[in-house]
Amino acid sequence: MKIIETSHIAKRYIMGTEIIDALKDVTISVSKGEYVAFMGPSGSGKSTLMNIIGCLDSPTSGKYILNSKDVSDMTENELAEVRNKEIGFVFQTFNLLPRMTSLENVALPLIYAGYTKAQRTERAMAALKSVGLEQRAGHRPNELSGGQRQRVAVARALVNDPSILLADEPTGNLDTRTSYEIMDLFDQLHSKGNTIVVVTHEDDIAKYAHRIIRLRDGLVETDVVNANPTKVK
Ligand code: ADP
Ligand code: ADP
């Protein structure tokens, strides 16, 4: 079953008289349960592609089918709805709300989904448990280590049971040892059947993925199976 299917996607930015073709012709498909890394040098189009895959932006031309829905020509509001349902985002900077506890941060996406308070607490606790942080439910971000903060962010990303976990440079603000902690977590989530897309410029991080797609100048340069993904243990 395909989760991501892009067909000849292009993205053009026009800045004054300058035309930038950030993506020129990108056709990829990702199946349910895959663990993929997008790599490429700065300016190759990674963020642009991530924004399109994550329904933060639309392509200028081409087709994007997300979980059997054509999202290519959706309005901002329609995109926002699909995004909340289908995508769990993890960012380099964690983006947790500082005055809220771990549990409250993780429960936040459920408010918009219309759950009762009791249901929200139950689901948020289950998500915290899945990242090994149920003991830190009452802590605020500044009472947590960097790795723990990112695990809270992963729990928040997963709490709505999205079809894709989409992580943009998830270890960019972490030291090497803590990075392994997060990659170990991604490994476990992949084993449980989650579909994971990581965008990174770091080889060491991409090597955990089971497939590596390399972009250059807005095109797919290589798309290879990683037969020997790095394991933490
Ligand atoms: P990467 O994430 O691989 O560094 P980007 O997708 O950010 O690449 O950028 C690809 C190209 O598109 C670059 O030339 C960049 O300057 C340009 N670009 C990205 N976003 C915008 C934007 N919002 N407006 C204009 N140009 C942009
Ligand atoms: P970069 O990869 O350049 O460091 P970020 O990781 O901060 O940038 O963000 C990648 C993209 O996701 C950007 O286009 C940004 O606007 C968007 N983004 C970042 N944080 C959020 C958020 N909390 N909600 C929605 N979009 C976000």
UniProtKB/TrEMBL annotation:
Keywords: ATP-binding, Nucleotide-binding, Transport. GO terms for molecular function: ATP binding; ATP hydrolysis activity; transmembrane transporter activity. InterPro entries: AAA+_ATPase (IPR003593), ABC_transporter-like_ATP-bd (IPR003439), ABC_transporter-like_CS (IPR017871), ABC_transpr_LolD-like (IPR015854), MacB-like_ATP-bd (IPR017911), P-loop_NTPase (IPR027417). CDD domains: ABC_MJ0796_LolCDE_FtsE. Residues 4-233 form the ABC transporter domain. GO terms for cellular component: membrane protein complex; plasma membrane. PANTHER family: ABC TRANSPORTER ABCH.1 (PTHR24220:SF86), IMPORT ATP-BINDING PROTEIN (PTHR24220). Belongs to the ABC transporter superfamily. Macrolide exporter (TC 3.A.1.122) family. This is Putative ABC transport system ATP-binding protein. It comes from Runella defluvii.
